[in-house]
Each structure stands twice: as C-alpha cells, then as structure tokens.
Amino acid sequence: MTADTTPELTPEQLAEIERKFDPETAFRPTGRTLGIIVTSVLVAMSVYHFYASGFGLVRELLHRGIHLSFVLGLVFILFGIRKTDPAMPPRAWYRFDGVPLVDIALALLAVGAALYLPLLPPAALAQRVGNPSPADIFMGSALLVLTLEATRRSVGPTLPIIGLLFIAFAYFGPWMPGALKHGGSSWLGIINHLYMTNQGIYGIAIGVMAQYVFLFILFGVLATRIGLGQLFIDLAMVIAGRYSGGPAKVAIFSSAFMGTISGSSIANTVTTGALTIPAMKRVGYPAHFSAAVEATASTGGQITPPILGAAAFIMVEYLEIPLRDVLAAALFPALLHYFGIFIMVHLEAKKLGLRGLRAEELPKMGVVLKDHWLSLIPLVILVYLILSGKTPDFAAVYGIIACLVVGFLNPTHRLSIKDLWEGLASGAKNTLAVGAAAATVGVVVGVVTLTGVGFRLGYVVVQTATDIGTMLSSLPVLGYFAVTQWALFTSLILIAIACIIMGAGIPTTATYIILVAVAAPALAQLQVEPLVAHFFVFYYGVLADITPPVALAAYAAAGIAGSNPFKTGNTAFRLGIAKALVPFVFVYSPALLLVADGFTWWAFTVTLIGAMLGIASLGVAFSGFLFSKLKTWERWWVALVSFLFIAPGLLTMGLGIALMLPVLVIQIGRRNKAMQAV
Question: Of 128, 260, 272, 367, which sits with the fewest C-beta atoms within 10 Å of its C-beta?
Fold first, then answer.
C-alpha cells in the first residue's frame, strides 16, 4: 500500500472548512474601523462576565439582559442575512465598513429591547407582569422577532422554525387536534409570558449561558492558548502513536483530552484532525475511515467531563444537583464511547496490517512534560474546585485566573497583551451562536410552561408506546415481556429517533433542552429517574453530529481528508455505535451513572463489564475481524450475541459468553492454521 502524499492543509484552509460546516463560526468580515469596535465590544463582554460572575453583584434579570444584549447586538453585526453574504462595495451609502446599515440598526434595536425590561425598577416591573403596557408589548414583540432572526443567522433555520411552530401552537390552541388541544393564548398573553416573566426568553437557558457557559468557553480558549491543547495532542502521540494503526489511536486519545476543555464537535474535529487525519492516511487508513475516526472521537468532547458542552450546567439547574454529581454520572458513559471507537480502530488496523508511528515521528515524553506541564495547572485547579463542591462559576473564574498567571509566567507559551486581547475576543465570539440559540430555546420552553404541551406530548408518546407494547406482547415469542417493558423500550426508541432528527439541524444543547421538556414527563410516567432521562436525551442529541444525512462533524472531517462526506458519515455512525447503545444500558441499569438512585458497586461492576463485552462484540461484528476475517454468519451471530452482554445481569452475561465461545474457537483455529501455512 502506497503512502498518502496529500499535502496538509494550511490554518486558513482549516478555518474555511470549520466555517463551511459550522454555521456558528461563519462570521462575516468587517472593515478596519468596525473591526476594532467589534473586537473592543467582544473584549468588554468577556471582562464584564468575568467581573459579574467572580466579583460583582448584578441582579439576575439585569445580568441576563446584559448578556442577551451583547449576544444579539454582535450577532447582527457579525452574521449576514445569508450564510455567504455577497460581496458589496464596503463604502456604499447603505453600508458601514461592509456591514449594511439596516443590520446596524437591528443590532441597536436588539440591544435596546434586551435591556428595556431589566433596566425597569423591580417594583414597577412587578406591577406590570400580567398587565404589560403598549411599550412593553412593542419591546417584547421586537425582542422575540429579533431573537428568532439572530438565531437563524448564527445557527440556521431549523431552531427558529421550531420556535415559530411553538408560538403558533400557543396562539391556535383551540384548533389543535386531540390531546394537544388547549384554551389558547392571545398575543398579549404570549408576550407577557415570554418577555415579562423568567419563564421565557430570560429563563433558565439564557441564565445558564450568562452565569456558567460563557466562563467555561472562555476558559477553554485561554487554556488552549497557553499550550494545554498542544500538550493533549503530544501526550496522545506518546501514549498511542507507536502501536498498530497509531495515528487513529492518537485521534481517540487527543480528542478525549481536548473534550475536557472543548464542548464543540466541529471545533474539536478541526483542531485535532489537522494533525491526525493526514497521519492516519500516511500509515494506510482509507481517507473516509480516517475522517470518520476523527469525527467520532471529536463528538465525544460534548460528553466528556468537565465541560460537556453546556448540558452539564443546564442539568445542574433543572435537576438541582451539584455539578460534581453530573460530571461523575458522565464519566463512564464517555469512557465507553471512546472504548468502542478504540476497539474498532484496533481491529481495522489489524485487518489492514497497518503500522504505528516510527520513533522519529513521535515526541519525547520528557520534552513534552518539560515544555507544557505548567499548562495543566489551570485544569487541575478547575477540576479540584468543582470536586470540592464549589459552584461552577467560582471554579471557572479561578481557572481563568490560573490561565492568566501561568500564561504570563510560562516561558514556553508566554501570553502577551495582544494574545490576551485576542483570547478575550475569541472567547466571547465563540459564545454568540449558542447564546442566540439559548434565547430561542427559552421561547420554546416558555410555550411549554404556558400551555402544558410537555405533559400533553409526553402522554401521546407513552400512549403510543403502550399501544405498540400491547401488540408486541400478544405475539407468541415476544409475549415473554410485559406490556410495561415493551412500552418503555418503544418510548426510548421514539425519543431517540426524535433526538437524532432534531439534533441534525440545531445545536446539541438546544436539542437537549427542548426534548427534555417532552421526554422527561414521558419517561417519568414510565418510572425512569430524572437524571437518567436527561442523560438519555443528551446522548442522542450529540449522536446527530455523526448521523447522516446531516452529520456536520463527519462532513468537516471529510473536508480535511478529501473523502466522500456521506461515506464518512456512515462510517462515523458505525464507529460511534457505542454512543447509541450506552444510553439504553444506563436506562436499564442506572448504576452506570454512579450517582443514580440505588447505586451499588456490584451492580455498577456487572453493568460496566457487560457493556464493555457488548461494545467489543459489536466492534468485532462491524469490523468483520477478530483473530482473522469473520464469515458473514459469524458477524451476524456475534452481533446478536452482543445484545446479551448489554442487557444487565450475570445470567445474560454468562449466556453471552457461552454463545460466543464457538466463534472464538473457530477464529483461534483459523488464525493458527494461517500461521502454520506461513
């Protein structure tokens, strides 16, 4: 097999790939004057959030309003009305430094509408809730429309369309069919609920973004700039690079490490994939497989503690549990995700006979630690403070302070004032799209609380699942399971499909918040613990990043590898099959989440071993290789037996091992025969 000679992409080309596949980074260029103004505002946004969360005492509503005003104002400046804003004369009368004057006007109106309500005296605001003035209605209507448009520009059309459908549902309630019918609400009532209360735009979603997520994104940017990202990549090279198919294993480890500070699948793909994808191709992996490995590993960043995208902080607010409990629950499901990828990558390398990296291609452990060990200090401080029970914002503030101290003292990756300025601006810039999405999610959640649609849809899901369960339990073979068991399984399937479909068009956190409003009531009726229900929805929302036809992380990786995007997406989904199975494991055996009710070490151990055996078996079935190439009937047999391992219990595990033995004996015999022939 000839070595791949494809030239590695430049930073500019990588940035263009990220911009193409990640609408959240599709910023439009501005002229010099406006660029200086925008950068200054971005830096001010970072400084404000750092001060307000760490040292200031800002009223909750005012803090959320200031955050929202920054977000919406900057979105209208930095995102065009179309994804690719056509080139126009920057000095035309209708533009200022390349930005249309109408967008500047919309930005100013958005800032005013976002700050109008929070700046009212609390006593006056309390009197107007339920009886908004004409000015309140105008400002609320303006903010609602501008929020939907800002989300469309920065995230895409899917989430705003969902928001509009929910608003229509609230307004046209009397005409809704069946269980969805309700009394309806006037426009005044809708604006009053979505704008004047903390149940809508100014609700939990935007509050979490303002209080926690902004700081953690800023921490991730600064930690990367002081060398933590490079340390992770170098450590992954040292740990896994020398083994068979080494670059692919490097991709897994580096993405797992990067996931601790990055909550974006596409950003993680581009950052680590720039190094690992060309290396995988050089040692002989096919281009589509190289891209799929990187994309699948990178999506793990959203489920890897301590950041988990933004979902961890939403769970803290919804479930009212400490962040350390959420992170503990996320730990082993994330490890199982990477374990599944590792098994398939290893088997693929053995099947293709691929080499590892040579000694001269690998960094030296001593040099890596000598150059970068200081950059670990901020992450250690962050994790220690979280585990010691401190609030997330407290931990993030001191993590950021540690980044600055290390950055200014570290001789290897020393921060300059310019680096700090750019880091503060970049951190704020990375929060704009997710901030706009959070505001629109607030609209959806507000309609849910206004109309009770969550319980209505939950009822529909459970009723549908129960009907299907009744039909299945009446069949001769399937009747072994009770109707309630089939109802739970069918509900999980329906919710999983809904998560993947919605996640294909909107950010993971938005998918998670919206579907929790529907799935949580449904699963609660089926006696599923809230923590388990939240994690189930979250995992399937993340899976959309590698699920065709809209697998954005896979498509971004395909852009780096020069492979077929759809083929890459299909391969990525196969590699990420563990992520599709693990949620079912912890629904049926919540002990895997460590902090779930009824946890025992015995149940956890049995569940973990069973899950690992099941995931490994599925890896063998999908790869078609164990000690030698599997025949078709062997692959199907192993795939079917793997589900016995995933089902919790010693009995099913023992049965699975017994049924797997014939294939193992055949494989060992076939390998020995091949070795004797050689």
Answer: 367
